[in-house]
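Box 3.1. Reading complex inputs
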Amino acid sequence: MRNIFFLLFLAIMLSSCDGDPFESIIKLDPPPYDKKIALQFRAGVNDTFVDISLSRNFGILETPADSAFFIKNLNIEILESDQVLWQFNSGNDIPLNRATIYQEIPHGLFKSGKTYEIRASHPDFTSISAKQTIPEAPAVDSVRYDFDGGINSNGDEVSAFEVYLNDPAGVENFYQFSIGIISLSINPIYDSNNNVIGYDTLRYGPYDGYFEVSDDPNQEEGLNGSVLVGDQFFDGQAQKISLKIYKDYSPKEYVIYVRSITEDDFIWQRSLIRYEGAQDNPLSDPVLIYSNFKDGIGIFGLYNQRNFKVN
Amino acid sequence: MPLCYTLRTVTMRNHYRHFLFILLFWVAGAASLLAQKHTISGYVSDAQSGERLIGATVVDRRSGQGTTTNTYGFFSLTLPADSVYLSVAYIGYQSDGFLFKLAQNQTFNIGLKESALLKEVEIVAEKYERIEDRAQMSRIDIPIMQIKRVPALLGEVDVLKALQLLPGVSGGGEGQSGLYVRGGGPDQNLILLDGVPVYNASHLFGFFSVFNADAIKDVTLTKGGFPARYGGRLSSVIEINMKEGNENELHGEGSIGIISSKLTLEGPIKKGRSSFIVSGRRTYIDILARPLIKRALEEEGSEGSFGYYFYDLNAKANYRFSEKDRLYLSFYGGSDKFYSNIIEKYGEQPSYENEINAGLGWGNLISALRWNHVFSPKLFANTTLTYSQYRFNTKAENGDRRYENKVLTSEDFISIKYLNGINDWAAKIDFDYAPNPKHLIKFGASAIAHQFNPGKFNVKFIATDNNQNYNFTLNQPEESAGEFAAYGEDDYKVTSRLRLNYGLHFSAFTPKGKAYFSLQPRFNVRYLLNQGWALKGGFSTMRQYINLLTNENLSLPTDLWLPSTDIIKPQDSWQAAIGVAKTFADEYEFSVEGYYKEMKNVLSFREGSSLFQFSNWEGRVTQGDGTAYGAEFFVQKKKGKFSGWIGYTLSWAWRQFDDLNFGKKYPYKFDRRHDFEIVGTYKLTDRIQMSGTWVFSTGNAVTFPTSSYLGQGTNLGYVDFLDHTPERNNFRFPSYNRLDFGIDFKKQKRRYERTWSVGAYNAYSRKNPFFLYLDSTYEYDPVTGRSTEKKNLKQVSLFPIIPYISWAFKF
């Protein structure tokens, strides 16, 4: 009996030495998915152009050509109280960047306080829709600029912008702050003999700048270097939002863009930032990208923006 | 005085008054029943070793009144002045009986002899009172002898993994020793070693638990219907009691296994009065591999070493000052260490040296001083002073040095060290008061001083050429908090059919600038139906003040315990359970329980956050609610050549966080619809014993994208592929199943008994999932000159069949 057990044990020992003993990889079926329209449409009250990203989704294991993602001849409609205000067809041409169309819209298409619906349809897909109400313009008392804004946590010098908000009470408000930089450059003027005969001031921009990450619990990182703020901690109160950039000694002018955004847009931006942040961190909990489309994927976001020039 | 302070004080006073009133009510009520009665009290112990026996039954056969011994082997039974036939029984021991006239209070210290007929697991019989006798439900006791027979990964007997084989308890990932009880999280288990909390109960990233089975006497799991004496965690209490040591003779046991060896010695310090036990365990793969590593490094022109080991040391001593006083001193120290020190040398004149030194260490240190005192035959007290520490530290150092004529001429050196941990100092006192056979009253109080170290970084940088020398420390501030508790409970035999266990647990927690209070009612009832069926119900509320920041996939040593604060609220739960229980044919214990549990303020990382970030921890977590419900079926055979159990759990576990899954409810990662386990031991002959386990469970829930699309990323103007995941934990791992088996060959030698154990973990080499990933490969087509991407969803499995062999001795 003992010998039988010994031989059995030996057989097990030897069989476990096949291949890599501590890791094996087996293939699994992917989770099922539904074919859907994916649309990103974000616009503001005074906008005359809008970026529209449109695509379809493919299963996580499918590897179609990039050109297969764009949905040709997709109909998009903007409606107010079921009345079509504007419509658009994506046509047959695939955009250069594979998904985004830079499209003109009528000035004044979106008005403060109004509710709009977007519908997108295509014979091969289930139609999708979403609704948004444009928030009131942000109540900003003033914006101040302090060239000497102190030192950040890394010991670098910063400049600061202080935006004084008057948050309306009783409603949840969401804000987005961005910065545009108007660059000034003093360039020499040369004569035909390449001698400097004077100086000219050139003005470039504005181009987008990046705010520094803040430890203010009200602030979160938004798209493209912007800052998102929700009013959950200061509902109905005056609030100073302090925004910082690296100190730049060359002369500059700045435009601070203050937007009232919808809650859906706020959540979507936040989820997209967290999603991309988690891509490089294998220990991070997984992140879902928010969508507010019924039967579809993506975001319909509307905003109301004010601009403040400071120098 | 601020109004809020006044109100709080008044509320507190009301709580105290209410609590004291109930206590006095119990005591006074019970005392009125004492006329013409006398008390028999004493200890029940092993006659040979003097080891106190927990849960031995002491019954007067004439009146049918009885009790069981407590954690220290003490019993107290008050009976009418009359003839008494006292019967004392315990599993594996010959029952003893005493016939006498009870005319005054009497002390009996009873030593039971081990039974030759009932030895070891041939009959793992009823060590405790029958399941239908006790009021408390959702409690399971597993004899340590049975735990030692369960086949284990690499033959390393594991208490926590044995508990995973019980209904209502899930393990974490493949091979992990984490516990998830009735839909609760891994931080919601109170693991007590001799009454002291153990904060990190795992070695080697959770593949082994810190408990050395050779030093353990007893294990009890409570997963619901918590008696009032327990508090501080939401989901379970695991009580592990160490052996006390043989009072009369020196004995030892040990084993040599594939990854570790163990040695335990126990014996008298002063015969019949005091004893000790010392048990140590260490892995030795680092020692065995050292020559190979050295040679491999030398071949690469380097020197140094690297490796990993863990060790445990359990020690306990006790001294009996008198029949009424006994002192226990117990200690546990355990640690895991990864180390690497590699030096590379090159060049002649000048010569250069690069040294990389890295390490990772974590471990627990626990000590307890306990004093048992018998105030009167009816009143037993245990006073405990404890210290518990958990520490994690890591370091990475890199040094580049230049020597001319063996003299150091320049050096670049950088060192980063990190440390976190928790320290607890605690004092508590517990009383057992048995005024009469109908009541067993327990009451007590405790105070804990917690000190949390959320993380300390030290960075050192030296560059002699640039004359730079920096040394700075970044601290997340240490946090302190006091935790206080008081309780009172009564186990009340109302009639022969109706038995209650009810009580109140009060707790308070005082983190910086804040105070939390909680009054938690507990209630268990048993009603004996006809034909021996017991109908049971239980209700308990629990509160938890300390939280674990953890990765749910692996038991990482970086797990961080942190207090509730003014921002992070304490976790709360309530649980109700109902069930039936019965013992069939004196052999088969059967129970069915249904439960419903709600949890509030459970913790999770915010989406996109993780442990390895240096921002304030409170900003990285979010709190939400949890719900769990299900039914558990359990059949256990305790007698005969074949013993074991079958358990089945049908359950649901949900989470809902405002900040996760966009506020929608989602299944918990360890939501397992079905969980089935069979554990069996069979004694083939006197010398050969076989054991096996088979487990099956629904796969873990994981979050996995279902599709991808093109859209704008975080930088305006750039389009990228984005994953679409409809909801959190939307996908399931394949089901988990595994068969383990083991065989013991025992032989009595002249001076000792030896046992060869062989077996296999995952005997049919089931590829169980450890994690999933998306794999991309590119296939090149030489005709078109293009590469085509091919994606696969792949599952990584950790353990195929893992055989084990070990040799053990006992004298």
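In summary: The helical segments of chain B are 3-31, 144-149, 159-163, 285-299, 617-620.
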